[in-house]
Amino acid sequence: MIWLKAFVSGFLATLIFHQGLFTVFYLVGMVPSAPFNMNPVPPMGVPAVFSLAFFGGLWGLVLWAALRRLNGFKFWLGNVIVGAIGPTAVAMLVVFPLKGLAVSAQTVIGGLMLNGFWGLGVALFLVIMGAKTARPATGNS
Known about the structure:
The protein has 141 residues and is mainly α. It has one domain (2-128). 70% of the residues lie in helices and 3% in strands.
């Protein structure tokens, strides 16, 4: 059940945190394309935003696996840092070249910001769903 919560946390964080910040970037003119892209993507023709959210869910599993032992501030900061670096590195080094997209300082910095905020969302949803406590663990460990 915890793995499902981790997936759902990543999925929801994509729709709310990642796409929410992307909306802000779009409204202030920092990015040319609109958020919540509903254009179908292969191979199944689902809207791009739901494909992105699915992969956000998979990344939520990665974050949970990597950071589940952390508590308190380290848990929150770890989700922001790993959330920023992991998906951004894969996007810039694998996804962008496969799609023929240019990688620039702007896309890297924007990716780190979007994905770091997404990581914060993952941590928040894990706490909300009871998969993690918001406070440091007590006792000796």
